[in-house]
Amino acid sequence: MISVNLDGDTERYLVAILSQEQTTSSALIDRLLREYWETIQPKKNIFERLLSL
Q1: Rounded Cα distance, 32 and 27, in Å
Q2: What is the pLDDT of residue 30?
Q3: How far is the C-alpha of 32 from the C-alpha of 26, rounded, in Å?
Q4: Which residues touch 24 (CB under 8 Å, ≥6 apart)?
Q5: What does the alpha-carbon distance between residue 11 and residue 17 come to, in Å, rounded to a whole number?
Q6: How do the domains of the chain map onto residue ranges?
Q7: Helix (H) or strand (E) holding 42
Q8: What highest taxon heads this organism's lineage (predicted)?
Q9: Can you tell me the distance from the alpha carbon of 20 to that of 15, in angstroms, rounded to the nearest whole number?
Q10: Of these four, 18, 19, 24, 37, which has the most CB atoms within 10 Å of its CB?
Q11: Alpha helix segments (H runs only) across the chain
């Protein structure tokens, strides 16, 4: 479990996003971390992508 202190603006953004996406903060953080992780990974070539199917 992680506890994070947010400033007022950030907390309002979070509440708005959670409402719009109809999700939980845990699910949103999971999704954001997975998406970010994928963006920082080295790009696979076509052969590597075929092997991972």
Answers
A1: 9
A2: 95
A3: 10
A4: 18
A5: 10
A6: 8-51
A7: none
A8: Bacteria
A9: 9
A10: 18
A11: 8-21, 25-40, 46-51
